[in-house]
Amino acid sequence: MRKVLTIAGSDSCGGAGIQADLKTFAALGTYGMSVITAVTAQNTQGVFAVQEIAPEMVAKQISCLYEDIVIDAVKIGMVSKTEIIKTIARKLKEYQAKNIVVDPVMISKSGYDLMHPEAKEELIRTLLPVADVVTPNLYEAQVILEREITTVEDMEKAARDIVALGPKSALVKGGHLRGNAVDVLYDGESFTYYDQERIATTNTHGTGCTYSSAIAAHLARGLSLKEAVQGAKEYITGAILNSFSIGKGVGPTHHFYKYY
Ligand SMILES: Nc1ncnc2c1ncn2[C@@H]1O[C@H](COP(=O)(O)OP(=O)(O)O)[C@@H](O)[C@H]1O
Ligand SMILES: Cc1ncc(COP(=O)(O)O)c(N)n1
Questions:
Q1: For labelling, which of 24, 147, 149, 186 has a CA lying 20 to 30 Å from the CA of 258?
Q2: pLDDT at 253 (0 to 100)
Q3: The Pyridoxamine kinase/Phosphomethylpyrimidine kinase domain covers which part of the protein (predicted)?
Q4: What is the number of other CB atoms lying within 10 angstroms of the CB of residue 53?
Q5: What pLDDT, on a 0 to 100 scale, did the predictor assign at position 195?
Q6: Whether residue 11 has its Cβ less than 6 Å from ligand 2
Q7: pLDDT score for 108
């Protein structure tokens, strides 16, 4: 059984964060583990409170897992502040972690800031360079590069410029684009496009978390990056098709079990 770790925040309503990640790992036939960086009081309508975990506790959680268990892939989600980001980057280097997927979570679908503005610089300086693949949505790519991104051509240039910041590859997601939901992968050599007709739903809470976790699970299973993203795109599309309303706001994607 391949083992996959998520380093991310807890989402009390279960649609995003650690909860979405663990469901995805299980659905894709891998064994999931978690390092919690923050606890959020969150529902489909908003994020009402955030309590960050002390960086030393984040470090301890990472150490005790890597000291004991062979981890085949790791995904990093919500990391809200500079000290937590520094700690994670240091620990991943110390344990020579492999198959590192960084989802640079900045803002929730309900519009709440999940990262302190000053932490962005640290994310760029220390976490992007250790990533095998970084998965920004349009907004996050805009914040990282400090320019507007509105077309597929802009996404290609953004993926190339993000790779220049240090990660081995960048997947710029077009979930917030007009028209098809097309994502652009640049691996330092060439572009690959993952194109999907847009599904008419507002229940997209947790799409980014689920997608990056599915990429990590497929990398853990030994797939190449291009194959892992293809498998993850099929998985997230199915999960969005299965999404449903659970409250008054943005509902979650729904997972279905796909054993390998
Ligand atoms: N309405 C939709 N129909 C089909 N695919 C979508 C839709 N919304 C998002 N996606 C896809 O879901 C994945 C997550 O993307 P996105 O929503 O942009 O990320 P985030 O949750 O980080 O904002 C991407 O593959 C994107 O293309
Ligand atoms: C703990 C946590 N992590 C990540 C997200 C982003 O997910 P989304 O953009 O789908 O709201 C979230 N809302 N909560």
A1: 186
A2: 93
A3: 11-254
A4: 18
A5: 96
A6: yes
A7: 84
Ligand minimally distant from the alpha carbon of residue 51: 2
0.90 exceeded by the pTM?
A: yes
Ligand number nearest CA of 110 is 2
Residue 224, both tokens = 């190449």
- Closest Cα to atom 21, ligand 1: which residue? 208
Q: What is the model's pLDDT at position 93?
A: 98
pLDDT tens sequence across 222-246: 999 999 999 999 999 999 999 999 9
Kindly report, residue by residue over 21-55, the tens digit of the pLDDT. Answer: 999 999 999 999 999 999 999 999 999 999 999 99
How many CA atoms lie within 13 Å of 20's alpha carbon, on the beta-carbon side? Answer: 31
Q: Is 208 in the pocket of ligand 2 (CB under 6 A)?
A: yes
- What three-state secondary structure class fits 206? coil
Q: Which helix (H) or strand (E) holds 38?
A: strand 31-42
CA of 16 to the centre of ligand 2 (A): 5
Closest CA to 170 of 180, 181, 156: 156
Active site residues: 173, 204, 206-209
ipTM (interface pTM): 0.97
The fold of the 3-241 domain, in CATH, is: UDP-N-acetylmuramoyl-L-alanine:D-glutamate ligase (3.40.1190)
Name the residue of 45, 53, 105 whose CB sits within 8 Å of the most ligand 2 atoms, as the mutation to test its pocket.
105
Query: Would the pLDDT of 7 be above 80?
Result: yes
**From the CA of 145, how far away is ligand 2's center (Å)?**
21
> 105 in ligand 2 pocket by Cβ < 6 Å?
yes
